[in-house]
Design goal:
Helix content: 40-55%
CATH superfamily of the largest domain: Metal-dependent hydrolases
Radius of gyration: 21 Å
Strand content: 5-15%
CATH topology of the largest domain: TIM Barrel
Shape: elongated
Order of helices and strands: HHHHHHEHEHEHEHEHEHEHH
CATH class of the largest domain: Alpha Beta
Number of strands: 7
CATH architecture of the largest domain: Alpha-Beta Barrel
Number of domains: 2
Amino acid sequence: MLRDPVADLRRIAFLLERAREPTYRVRAFRTAAARAASLSRDELLERALAETLPELPGIGPTTARCITESLAGRTPEYLSRLEATAGPLAAGGAEVRLALRGDCHSHSDWSDGGSPIREMAETARELGHEYLVLTDHSPRLTVARGLSADRLERQLDEVAALNETLAPFRILTGIEVDILDDGALDQKPDLLDRLDLVVASVHSGLRMPSHEMTPRMVAAIANPRVDVLGHCTGRLITGGRGRRPESEFDAEIVFAACARFGVAVEVNSRPERLDPPRRLLRLAVAAGCLVAIDTDAHAPGQLDWQGYGCERAAGCEVPVETVVNTWPSEALLVWTADHSVRP
């Protein structure tokens, strides 16, 4: 059986990301995959036979062994071990996950993600999605290489070109735009108007008192360009960045605004966020809010984290029909153009 060593290395990296293994380990396999992809199969075979693969920059003994096994037509042992333990990530929410057609919050290496747009899109397609909304950061978030207006316009051109080759799968254009201290949005209005979907999130001033945070969030929610309110409390509950408490705001007022203006409340599936907490998600459901179950993925393997959000949505009795990314892309785009229209 002819195997593709590059695909095997990428699959290993995907499974490591999915399992939240250390970044350096994932990077080793992605680096090796990129190096292997730069060589012809004959060159790889020649080096594998001569046992000189580890002499190549970016390929070490473990990745060289995986390449050699793959070239020999065998599933790399490393990959076999990972596949054997790659069971479901969450115990519940399977029905919700089956209903999902896409993901409304993802990042690429244009901002602080680790992989190219195409690889993120192809992984989403392999996971069964019909579309992926690309939402790299806005310019104020310099630590995340937020996109200036010029860079965002160039990204739109790249997405248009990719969509010609990936059809019928579709990359939807978007942004995770910062909510500024006064509730304004961190990008030019005319450029936001060109995007398919806008996620608005608070990334700074997270300890702002409730009497200031609440109107700040409501001002953003009332902006007709905003479609999804991202990770509303900003909390961190685990992970390498440490812990961070929830931002303080009047949840009843914020969710009432979301319901009134047709803005979806994000169920952020990242394990270190799982935002909003269950008590707030139940409040959002009671307020009649739409919901977007998103991964906020910064790497291909993280696109499979939606199961965590689906489990929480099911546990909080989120009606499946109110989850915007269970809708076909055409219906989603009708809604983002006019929040009063639902399928």
